[in-house]
Write a structure and sequence with these properties.
By secondary structure, the protein is α+β, with helices and mostly antiparallel strands. Helices cover 39% and strands 19% of the residues. The protein folds into two domains: 3-48, Ribosomal Protein L9, domain 1 (3-Layer(aba) Sandwich), CATH 3.40.5; 59-102, no CATH class.
Length: 103
Amino acid sequence: MSTVTVEKVQGGQVYLRALERRLAIGDRAEVSEEFAAYLVDERGDFELVSEEGDDVVDDDESIAAQIEVGECPWCDEYEGENVGMHASRSHPEAWDEFQDEED
């Protein structure tokens, strides 16, 4: 059975029982082609990583897109128009890092 690499590109953290690990935006995992098809096609919050590594959405673009639509990119606990306020209080290190990269 061959494996492929997938990367989490949107949504909050997710625990994948098949891998026994939690993945957040930007995390990559080696999975079977069948499981990759499920993650990419059915879930929609993962993308295949090409051998060259250029088929994946940039982390900052993905985070900014989630914030724009009112989703917290670091958890599934908040949705609304005040993502920045939520993130600065609930995920201060990740929020500060994101803000520094945006400047």
